[in-house]
């Protein structure tokens, strides 16, 4: 272990890494590069001046927390403690600057997830907790499944494009949230409203009163992400959530957007449960996001 060198820096440019050390990025942060506009913290591991490992992280806006974004050790140098030392060096360095917490998100399907978990466990991070369930698929494949299904929207219910709701409808939703905490915060339909995908975002009305919605955002030209699905508790026995999803995926397909992505909290995954039950026939891909942290 003695010959490996570890060096911390708080001025790493992501573009520089993308250009000069692309093999040392995992997961592929180049997709995020426009969203993270700050210098990265990095720890580089070298052997005789050649890089063998790289860790990237960022501080949050307060500078009190740092988040690990990427960690890679060259395949020839794995299982020799390099990954462990990269994480330990980050920890020491940010602790010196007064940061009190380190955290990270990772995915259940990552090939080296076990190694990462071992490193975290040895370094006494908190046991990773499942945070999100992520399902990816093709609208066309999934539609086949819905088509076999004969349930129809019951009488007095109606779909309305979410963006066509009028001011009264919108005020009604906000007031009900304020007064009776109608829906969980993360099911808020007004988040990032400017980028809502109109065809894939539908409100459900009963006797002309809003009782639910499905909201989606186009996150790439061919990829629609479902972000919120909500049906008022009193209307849940009618399989309306299922119908909302069917309608939204149908409209997405008509709008020629081939792929969809559904992210939901692990304790509330109505949206994906149905699809997962049919994962094999519809070739949907499932992964989970896990969260771990360490107080310094
Ligand atoms: C994850 C990664 C960085 C680990 O680097 P590394 O230098 O091999 O890590 P270390 O040698 O410090 O530690 C690996 C640990 O996994 C353990 N391990 C080895 N095989 C294992 C297995 N099959 N299952 C679980 N743990 C295993 C090792 O024994 C070691 O733990 P120990 O110190 O208690 O013995 C490296 O595998 C990698 O670059 N993978 C590809 C990128 C990636 O997945 N990064 C994680 C994203 S954040």
Q: Descriptors for this entry?
A:
single chain, Aminopeptidase, binds coenzyme A, 2 domains, 12-stranded mixed beta sheet, 8 helices, 296 residues, alpha+beta, elongated, 12 strands
How would you describe this structure to a colleague?
The structure is a single chain. By secondary structure, the chain is an alpha+beta fold. It folds into two domains: 4-125, Gcn5-related N-acetyltransferase (GNAT) (Aminopeptidase); 134-290, Aminopeptidase. The protein contains eight helices and twelve strands. The protein has a twelve-stranded mixed sheet, with helices on both faces. A hairpin with a 2-residue loop joins strand 8 (202-206) and strand 9 (209-220). Helix 4 (139-147) crosses helix 6. The longest helix is centred in the first third of the chain and has 15 residues, at 82-96. The chain is elongated and about 75 Å long. It binds coenzyme A. Coenzyme A binds next to strand 4, helix 2 and helix 3.
